[in-house]
Specification:
GO terms for molecular function: ATP binding; protein kinase activity. The chain is α/β, with parallel strands linked by helices. The chain is built from five helices and 32 strands.
Amino acid sequence: MIPASLSTISRLQILEIYGNNFAGQVPYSLGNLQDLSWLNIGNNNLGSNSAHDLDFLPPLANCSKLGVLHFALNNLGGVLPNAVANLSTQLCRLYISINSISGNIPEGIGNLISLSLLDMQKNLLTGTVPASLGKMQDMQAMSLSENGLSGHLPSSIGNLTKLNQLFLDQNQLEGSIPASIGNCQNLQLLYIAQNKLSGAIPEQVISLSSITQLLNLSWNSLTGSLPGEVDKLQNINTLDLSENNLSGEIPTTIGDCSSLEYLYLQGYSFQGNLPSSLASLKGVLHLDLSRNHFSGEIPKELSKLPSSVLYVNISYNNLVGEVPVEGVFKNASAILVTGNCLLCGGVYELSLPACPVKHMKRGKHHLLKLTIILVPVALFLLLFLCFLAIFWLRKKKKSSASHPTIEQLSKVSYGRLHRATDGFSPNNLVGSGSFGSVYKGYLTQEERQVAVKVLNLQKKGASKSFIAECKALRNIRYWNLVKILTCCSNTDYIGNDFKALVLDFHGKWKRRAVASF
């Protein structure tokens, strides 16, 4: 136990018994030490979690020079008395954390206008955060975390312009985050996680460029989007906005938070693509974007994240496509991509399915562009050549059909020609030439009038003339004048050789035939 006899040292100024095994009750008589400026009885076993454990506090109001009061880390219980507001106005540090102190924070605590540090964390305090705290103009660090405080945060917190650390986490605080916190231009750490705060994140708070250590608003019910002014946090080390109801896209300006080492944005309704600007976070160690609604492919730029990255979690989103295999993505132990059913590729250890189509390398982009240009041109030329070929074949076929060769013609017998010309009657003689005579005839089977040119084989050269004329008629270009129908190479009734050509006969035939033969 702390001996009560200490109170007899009337000029005692500093009593430092931190970190011992003192137990029992704190002597009330310590209030008799009027010159006492420093009282540190923390980290002992004082108190018994009973209602009278704090009865030593009211007498300490007599210590008008008291500047530091530390009784944290004990077993002190009971209700925090209103008498705490009567302590010395010179009190600059008050530590009562990690006890079992209950009740409300007295409104009169604002009378302690010289306080620069107030530590009440890990107690059983309830009620609201007193607005009178805004009177403490010299306050630099305040911790009310891990209590049962409720209600709204007072806007008077914005009056604490010297504040650099504010811990309000793990309470039951409600309502919105006061925009007036943006007035705390020296704030380096703001920790108000695990409450019931709602509404949007004030731009005045997210743009506090003074925050260098931590901004933690996680595990609340905050809504709206992440303001683009987040880029003002260029010197921040840790940003934790996880487990809220934020939505929209992550602003690309987040890449300007160049000092960021820990970024936690998991458990939201964020959507859109992963911003490639995240690759600008050259000092990042932990990056958690899991359990959102991000879509699209993983930006290739993210493979440029520093090799010092220990943890990248993009699991349980709607990401698709190929997982990079370079940079940080080489280290499967640092990457979490589970829960994205349409991802493929990546390093073997990720156990993802192979991608069906391998992405084109940048070096082949030029070839791809060239192919896109040349293929249509080649196809056009090919179609044009095919068109010409078809046109030429059709023309040739038409010519062949219109002008049959000798081989295509059916030969006729001597007997038929004999009957067609009435036995080569002189009455049917049309004309004579150097190698034969031309007779008019009628082929009854074809019901067609014809001209029959009979060669005089007794004439020297007639046979050669017949052969030559057949060859000539095969390639002749003016058949529209004399059109060949068939030929005859046979013997007559008495066994003599007989050769004749059968030609078309029309009204002007005689004049043309005589001119030809």
